[in-house]
């Protein structure tokens, strides 16, 4: 485009601005004339629009070329389309009417098979980012991201475009619906794609942690496999969003990853960029180690490394070292490792960089405790007098909080806080002196000493207005406590305080008038001087001062025997208990941040507290129980779980369908709808009383179960087979337990990310029954086979799996039966019974079901040979052993059966009754027949 080249050369050659404007005006007039002709080809449109763009970039207003830019986007030539998109992103704001004209063209380019056109369209969407564009095109961008036919660089741009749209218009993006499909891309072999998607998930997971909880497992797996610095940083940050996992497998893997990162840091490189990457990963690893357990050995190692960083010659390294050490100090119970470097931290208050000084202040605040509070507060007070003005307000708040929190004596608190008020001047917020007044009012032993000390401070030649306010309040309420001591007489108190009033603002002088009316009541000897003040203030221009003076004058002039003055001027009662406003004010100063990690707003702003592990909904807790404390049992169980033949299924292949019950609650937690159907329900029911079999099967995948239980613990082997001739990629298995406090279930290891064609893998689930539970865990298997798919099925882990049969004689059985008694520890149900092929009651199946649920069938107990009697004990880790007795009475004529469960636990009785009845009934969904047996 020689014309464009010449135009740019002319502009650059203009010696003065007038010549430049003249050349631009001439060119704009020519362009308007050309555009009006309407007979321009694509090349000419491109050339003139390029000139318009260059003019706009120079800072001149342009009012031409918008429609031509819209037309260029529809061009099939790359150079013309590129100029059109560039003009749209530069010349049009996000609410421009012209943008509505390009939405269809952008959608066409997104759906095009040309990856270059895809990228141009993604650039335009990300740069403009209007709400209308997000609503119209977000689905198309998501499709490009998840499509297996998209080029890797297109998928990277699609992920970043979605991130841009979500940050601007989060309400438009259905983040929860897309969760499983987006998370599955973390298994992509292209690391650039994974890095872009990790950025997207990091943003989405902060707002929708439940839906993206499956990303936790994938992040740990990726960290364990791929040591790439910038990806590691994002994954480590992602893990900090969630409470620490209770899965022992993930815990061990994370510990190994963090230990490796910290060990690698001991070998510094001469390459500056390598060191930067290494330090960035290390600091995030330390933050994660603190997040997982603030008192672990890893954190002690981190404290040693941080001590080296806070003494570094590089400002950035010192800053990050202090910032991370402040996070550590706020979360750990043991501050000794940090206190060792207290001198270095105090010296950092005088660092040449204000950011480092601010982080040193945060760290000193976080590491302060009873032992070093006086030293740290003293240092902060000394530094306050020379500190930057930008730091002083925050320093005042922190000194006031530390003084109140760690005050060992009343004397130290009063001395320190009044010195703070005297030194801080204009940087003392209203909350500080309000808090002083609250504490002095509520602490009787402190009142006389506070009055005496504040009086001494007011005698100095210059006292800040905040100190005058505190003095006015305290002397007005408690000045009478020191009035009889030499040097503190009423007239001296009045003279010292009133001398400061002429330098104060109207609100402070109003407060002093309230002090004087109090003195009229307790110091009648100085009443003339006080009344004189009221008289003079009756004529001031300030309405509030004038009104107060008139009212106080009227009160003071009432007869001495009148009790109104005494009633009005009674001592203010103690304040009700309340949260310190100082901490709230400090937190607000640091609350505006997009980083929503649990600790992100706490560095130097919240009180130091020990690290706490918060239960994550749906996760597993095996601490102190389960396989860790029953290693020998687990090994014995595991030896019986080897192999399961799932090559064929006794039932027809079942296509998954949606189960409406509870689906909304599951979807809210990021769990797909439960797969259901006649065969799936039948398989599940059979596995309630058998140790192994098929749990789910379709044309692509087959899931089988083999289990063994002993006492309150057990292991379930889940076998997943790929029936297709193509691999299943992004393969993931996850467990969701709704009653985490009653049942724990976790995988021993993470599943591989790919399942090869016609192969089977085994996943061992460790389970422990702590209390009686009602809802079985949900197994979610997700994978990509052409499209993303997720299968959610109930695992046959129920309370009767922990039932162990016991032998009882007739006398013992009936003695216990009568001892337990009837309701509420009895559960009974009458239901239609299943029949065999001949139409008779299938007694053999009844015995199989009862025995399969764990009951010991007792022979010769019931006089009717058709009746079944059983006994067993339910093992729980927390509630102990629970006895359970069963009586099953079939009726041949009525084709009904009655099952009665009596247990020492009401919950066990009702739950076992439901579980035993289900595989026995002819139709579990049919209503129970009420005919009498």
From TrEMBL:
Domain of life: Eukaryota
Biased composition (Polar residues): 620-633
Disordered: region residues: 586-633
CC annotations in GO: AP-2 adaptor complex
Pfam families in the cross-refs: Adaptin_N, Alpha_adaptin_C, Alpha_adaptinC2
Subcellular location field: Membrane, Coated pit
Membrane topology: Peripheral membrane protein
Binding site for a 1,2-diacyl-sn-glycero-3-phospho-(1D-myo-inositol-3,4,5-trisphosphate): 2-3, 43, 47-51
InterPro entries documented for this protein: Adaptor_Complx_Large_Subunit (IPR050840), AP2_complex_asu (IPR017104), ARM-like (IPR011989), ARM-type_fold (IPR016024), Clathrin/coatomer_adapt-like_N (IPR002553), Clathrin_a-adaptin_app_sub_C (IPR003164), Clathrin_a/b/g-adaptin_app_Ig (IPR008152), Clathrin_app_Ig-like_sf (IPR013041)
Limits of the Clathrin adaptor alpha/beta/gamma-adaptin appendage Ig-like subdomain domain: 685-796
Comp. bias regions, Basic and acidic residues: 589-598
GO MF assignments: clathrin adaptor activity
GO biological process, alphabetically ordered: clathrin-dependent endocytosis; intracellular protein transport
Keyword annotations of the record: Coated pit, Endocytosis, Membrane, Protein transport, Transport
Biological function: Adaptins are components of the adaptor complexes which link clathrin to receptors in coated vesicles. Clathrin-associated protein complexes are believed to interact with the cytoplasmic tails of membrane proteins, leading to their selection and concentration.
Family note: Belongs to the adaptor complexes large subunit family.
Protein name: AP-2 complex subunit alpha
